[in-house]
Structure formats: structure tokens, C-alpha cells
Amino acid sequence: MEANVSGSILKGFARKFSRALRLDVAIVGAGPSGLVAACRIARAGARVAVFERKLAPGGGIWGGAMLNNEIVFQQEMKPLLDEFGIRYARASGRFLTADSVETAAALIYRAVHAGATIFNGVTVEDVVYKKGSC
Fold first, then answer.
1. How far is C-alpha 106 from the chain's CA centre?
2. How far apart are the first and last CA of the chain?
3. What is the Cα–Cα distance from 106 to 109, expressed in whole angstroms?
4. 51 to each of 88, 93, 95, 123, how far by Cα in Å?
5. Which three-class secondary structure string do you get for 7-34?
6. Interacting residues of 52 by C-beta distance below 8 A, sequence separation 6+
7. Whole-number Å distance between alpha carbons of 36 and 62
């Protein structure tokens, strides 16, 4: 049974990694900016992979503000929050607040469902660019 479980894990990962050998866009870092970029680029039809050094994608957003799982956005971010289905509340002035865990989860979910592949636990050491390949 253990061999079947391990074999399934390896085969699934090999399929994912094989598909990522030819990419239109490679994004290094699965913080909020990388996840939003991956989602939008994948929605446009490009083959996208995100490489994240840490175990959990989402960058520092998980910790919220001062390790309280609440974050503050400027009012101008409302369209992006709506686009990603992130719930928010109005705060004082021109600010909105949102749950940091929901925000991280929504960014990850939307990027993956748009077609981006996220590889966590991967450190990028070098990037090769060939002229005329883009």
C-alpha cells in the first residue's frame, strides 16, 4: 500500500513538473504580487508556473498586521478584492480590512484555478533567457 501511495505522489508531481519544463512565464516568489500576476497571466492563456522557496505560498500576508490575521487595504484595492472574491469591511478613512488567511487562500486558489502551477519548496538560483524566445 505504501508503495502505491508514494508512487502516486511521484507520478503526479512528475506530470506537473514535466508540463512546467516549457513555460511562457516563470514567476519567482508566490507572495501576493506573484500570485496576482500568475492568475492574470494564466487567465490570458499563457503557461505559467510560480516557484516559491517557502513551504506555504502567500508570502508574509498570512501574518496580517502585527501578527493579527487582519490586513488593511487602501480603497483603491476594492476592484482587486472583488476580482478575487475576498470579503472585506470598511474601516476608517479610505481603508478596507480583510482576513489575512482568507486573502492568502483566495489568491492561491484563484491563481491555481486560472491555470498557474505553484511549486513550493523550490529555490530559484538561475534564470536562462534566450533572445527571441519571447
1. 9
2. 45
3. 5
4. 28, 37, 31, 7
5. HHHHHHHHHHHHHCCCCCEEEECCCHHH
6. 29, 30, 34, 118, 119, 120, 121, 122
7. 15
- 125 three-class SS: coil
**Run of H or E residues at 79:** helix 78-83
Instruction: Determine the angle formed by the axes of helices 32-43 and 100-114, rounding to 10 degrees.
Output: 30
Of 1, 38, 41, whose CA–CA distance to 119 is shortest? 38
Say what the pLDDT of residue 66 is.
87
Helix (H, G, I), strand (E, B) or coil at 42: helix
Cell 508574509 sits on residue: 60
- What is the block-wise mean pLDDT of the chain (134 residues), using blocks of 10 residues? 93 95 95 98 98 96 91 96 98 95 98 98 86 69
pTM of the model: 0.90
Q: For residue 17, what is its C-alpha cell?
A: 513538473
Q: What is the spatial order of strands in the sheet that 25-28 belongs to?
A: 25-28, 48-52, 117-120
Give the SS3 label for residue 73.
Answer: strand
